[in-house]
Amino acid sequence: MRKFLSLLKKEEMALFTSPIAYVVMAVYLIVMGYTFTLTLFMSHSPTLVHMFFQIYVMFLLTVPIITMRLIAEERRLGTLEMLLTSPVTELAVVMAKYLASLSLVVLLLVLSSAYAIALAIFGAPDWGPIYSGYLGLFLLGGALVSVGLMTSSLVSNQLIAALLSLSLFLLLWIIDHFGWVLPDPFNAFFVNLSLLVHFTPFATGSLFLSDAGYFISMALLGLFFTVRALAQR
Amino acid sequence: MPQPEIVVVDKLVKRYGPRLAVRGVSFTIREGEIVGLLGPNGSGKSTTLRILTGYLPPTAGSARIVGFDIWEHSLAIRNYVGYVPEDAPLYDGMRVIEFLRFMAEIKGLSGRAVGNAVVSVCDRLSLGRLAGMAIGKLSRGYRQRVAIAQALLNDPPILILDEPTNALDAYQVIGIRELIRSLAGRCTVVVASHVLTEIAKVATRVMILRDGNLLTDDAVTSGGGTPRYRLLARGPQPAVLAALRNVPGVAAAAVHADAAASPELATYLVEIASRPEAAEDLARAVVGNGFALLELTQEKPDLEQVFLELTRRADEAIAA
């Protein structure tokens, strides 16, 4: 456990001493502030549904930037060789990187809670959809970070890792559009692969175990393949 | 009594797709040895070392370190091996002390042991005044020292260094060489290099790899033809020479040209078939015939000649 905590500390330091984390936070807050103000003045209703969909898009675009360097950079610099010839398991290395990146995603969610607090002070929001929306975003973030980590483990070029995960995310965003035009039973298969189809219920205040299962399965699969990629060198 | 075998490699094979990088390499390393792994670039040195450190799995064959199979007990053997990869890869954004503390912690040290180990390696490698510096700002020589320092943090019984003097200037090379020599007796060291002179200066035994084949596991004794001894003896030269030539296995005996001027005290060069008691027989031949023996040393063959001879033989074998 002590070794794992050291790995986690090192990853947190690497993340929060790099400019990437701060650039991501700054862009995120600017876009979110703009969206919150605009939707509040347009709709005059104390809801965060529009915000949640905006954060969903922001996650698709920023998670590849957060995760691209995690393993690709270590592979390119050769530090991965030193790390993996130390007495630590591949699982510990992967989980430390995963949790460190997830902590930034959680920080972004915590920062966006300022809008919920503002609604609570100046209005009477329905808290159910807000709680479910944040839960959905947390699960989405966990799944995306895992897939981003996996693509970073497959290549040694950060840019390619980012483009790979971005392409995957965009494909999973729009894959339900292909599903709707396909015959049965292929339509259900492709529709159920969609990120948006599983995120929408969370954002609108409905909780389904299948939606949570989708994001958790994606996170576990991503972590599994990342560990396998490291174990295979 | 010979030291126990700490590394045992048996018919090790590594294949990268269609290319065979290591072709059935077998050797053993005894505790306390400083072994040089010599070979041109692409000869399979780094791959062999990466297999020994548990970083790469072998395609076939086996290797054991302190009795553990390197792949089955990969995690366990990493506690026994300190490894410095080629080009000293380090985290440039970390300070030296942060990096060493991090490495000490993931090597299983805790509490005060972390601080003590870091202070100890900083002292041994003269890194004390650089402890607060960012690694990215260090010179190549100091980066190499930091990389070696992290490998020594938990006092491993085996230290593996891959091309430790690569791209260093002459002063830095001398520093690293002295450092490796200073480790003699403290741990077993395996040094890989393509620079023949470097290996010759630090290693007690030299293995030569070429195209994934191990040409010899001891270039000094097996590759240089007949072993040669140098004796300083007092006595009539013809009589001493005759006594030496009577020793079984002696191929040639002659008076060394530099010392030939003195009729009584002379240096003799003797080539004798390789066997453990050769030196004893030579000493007995001199002393037993009533002459005084002042010095007896085995001359190491020129490693460059050995390397050329072995690679020539390998080329001939391939051509045949």
3D architecture notes:
The complex is a heterodimer of chains A (233) and B (320). Chain A has 233 residues and is mainly α. Chain A is built from eleven helices and no strands. Chain A has one domain. Chain A is globular and about 60 Å long. The mean pLDDT of chain A is 92. By secondary structure, chain B is α/β, with parallel strands linked by helices. Chain B is built from eleven helices and 14 strands. Chain B has a six-stranded mixed β-sheet, with helices on both faces. In chain B, a hairpin with a 2-residue loop joins strand 4 and strand 5. The longest helix of chain B is centred in the last third of the chain and has 17 residues. The mean pLDDT of chain B is 86. The chains are: A mainly alpha (233), B alpha/beta (320). At the A-B interface, helix 1 and helix 5 of A face helix 3 of B.
Question: What is the H-and-E element order of chain A?
Answer: HHHHHHHHHHH
Kindly name the structural category of chain B.
Answer: alpha/beta
Instruction: Write the CATH architecture name of the largest domain in chain B.
Output: 3-Layer(aba) Sandwich
Give the count of structural domains of chain A: 1
- Could you report the average pLDDT of chain B, rounded to the nearest whole number? 86
Key structural traits:
heterodimer; A: 233 residues; mainly alpha; 11 helices; 83% helix; 0% strand; globular; B: 320 residues; alpha/beta; Rossmann fold; Alpha-Beta Plaits; 2 domains; 6-stranded mixed sheet; 4-stranded antiparallel sheet
